[in-house]
Structure formats: structure tokens, C-alpha cells
Write a structure and sequence with these properties.
The protein is an all-alpha fold. It has one domain. The chain is 89% helix and 0% strand. The longest helix is centred in the last third of the chain and has 24 residues. Keywords: Membrane, Transmembrane, Transmembrane helix.
């Protein structure tokens, strides 16, 4: 549930700042890529 609350918090913050959906999509993709990099680094290590 923590990830869901952080996701909604980020979305509300993006809406409050008036950022476009494209920027939010790029931010979400960046978070997913960072998580994948962490998983791969732990897997290799």
C-alpha cells in the first residue's frame, strides 16, 4: 500500500504544479528504470 500512496502523492503533486501528463509519464518511466537497475545490480552482486 505504501507504493500506491506514494504514486497517488506524486500524481497529486504533478496536478498541483500543473505539469503536463508527458512529464509525469517520463517521471514514472524513470522510477521504473531505476527499480529495474536496482534489481539487476542485486542479481549480479
Amino acid at each position: 500500500m505504501k507504493q500506491f500512496t506514494t504514486y497517488t502523492a506524486i500524481r497529486q503533486r504533478a496536478q498541483l504544479l500543473g505539469l503536463p501528463l508527458l512529464f509525469f509519464a517520463v517521471q514514472l518511466i524513470a522510477v521504473i528504470v531505476s527499480l529495474l537497475l536496482m534489481i539487476f545490480s542485486f542479481g549480479v552482486g
